[in-house]
Amino acid sequence: MSPTEPLVLIVSGPSGSGKSTLVQKILELPGTMLAVSSTTRPPRKTESNGKWYNFVSEVEFQQMVQRGEFLEYAQVFGKNWYGTPLKSLGEALQQKKDLVLEIDVQGALQVKQKLPGAIAVFVMPPSCADLEVRIRERGQDSEDEIRRRLERARQEMLSYSSYDFAVVNDDLERAGREVQAIALSSRCRVARTEEHIREILKSFGG
Ligand code: 5GP
User: Fold this and answer.
1) Does the domain at residues 8-35+96-203 carry the CATH identifier 3.40.50.460?
2) Which of 22, 71, 146, 158 has a 20 to 30 Å separation from 16 between CA atoms?
């Protein structure tokens, strides 16, 4: 029996916790790919379509919802819509790659419900003050947006216990090694490797 779904690694954490950098660390591992989300948020200056996000209109997004094209979707910060296209699962399976989802807590809970084998990692800032400094240093959000992100962070932090792993991002080197270790060890779970194990056992005449 070959697996019918790829290994799915969910990475969540408050905005500014450095989760995108840690997702990049996972993507440095051969055999991994990012699920490109669709969003109604307008692109920032540094963002181009199709790399990290597919930028779509609200109408297009709702049509995708109606057609059942999302594995999960959510309205984040009560404002813009974000969703993971279902087709990314098939693409990962076909390419024999592990699929990395950088999504919020609402989306993570939906994926865990639909795919109980998915592994969820929560990235935590070392403190609230540290998070505020990081968000301000990014310099891409208005004062209103910063307040919204900090309030949202407070709520999101309470959801950590629904996750399989928590990584505190106080030292990027170490946190990077930790997320890579989580990805690599998830690959070796017996439930995922049973087919391969049985082949090996056959070679022993078992
Ligand atoms: P940003 O606008 O800063 O890129 O992302 C805002 C939030 O939306 C982040 O917490 C990010 O993880 C989340 N997000 C990005 N893509 C998705 C997605 O496809 N689904 C869900 N549920 N959240 C997402």
Assistant:
1) no
2) 71
